[in-house]
Amino acid sequence: MDRATIGRDVTVALYAVLIYSADSAHAPKETADTSVEVATCDAHADQLASAAVMTAAWAFTPRDMARAIRADGITNGPFIDAKEIVAGVYILDAPDLDTALAMAATNPVVQQGGGVEVRPVHSGGFAEPPEA
């Protein structure tokens, strides 16, 4: 099941890459000009985008900005208190899982002590308002 339906009639192979790190380098005021880590992330993203294999990407803010919602209320911090958090996610368009794994393995966080998780996308896409 390496195919995902995007929109109404387009089917492509999509893989979500979840980036795990001790924390996100993307604090609100950090840019590629002020942070080596952000510059490294941006260079990797530019490489994937230039190869036309990354279709979307989101860098999350640091863990102290997260809020977790549970039935008993809202708490500060990530949903699960763990050594590593999800620092971002991006979507790859790849012909198969092995190719997606090879592309994801080039993420700089892998060399920096973190890691990535690759999952085939089942369904979804950017939300559009329902037709009236």
Can you characterise this structure?
With 132 residues, the protein is of the alpha+beta class. It has a single domain (4-120), classed as Dimeric alpha+beta barrel (Alpha-Beta Plaits), CATH 3.30.70. It is 20% helix and 33% strand. The protein has 3 helices and 8 strands; from the N terminus they run βββαββββααβ. A 4-stranded antiparallel β-sheet has the order 4-7-3-8. Strands 1-2 form a two-stranded antiparallel sheet. β5 (67-70) and β6 form a beta hairpin. The longest helix is centred in the first third of the chain and has 15 residues, at 36-50. It is globular.
Spell out the blueprint of helices and strands.
Elements: E1 4-6, E2 10-12, E3 14-21, H1 36-50, E4 54-59, E5 67-70, E6 73-76, E7 85-93, H2 97-104, H3 108-111, E8 115-120
Antiparallel strand pairs: 1-2, 3-7, 3-8, 4-7, 5-6
Number of domains: 1
CATH topology: Alpha-Beta Plaits
Q: What share of residues are in beta strands?
A: 25-35%
Radius of gyration in whole Å, from Cα? 16 Å
Order of H and E elements: EEEHEEEEHHE
Low-confidence stretches: none
CATH class: Alpha Beta
Strand order of the largest sheet: 4-7-3-8
CATH homologous superfamily name? Dimeric alpha+beta barrel
Q: Tell how many strands the DSSP assignment holds.
A: 8
Separation of the first and last Cα atoms: 32 Å
The pLDDT mean sits at: 87
What profile does the largest beta sheet have?
4 strands, antiparallel
Number of H- or I-type helical stretches: 3
Helix content: 10-25%
Globally, the shape reads globular
CATH architecture, by name, is 2-Layer Sandwich
Structural category is alpha+beta
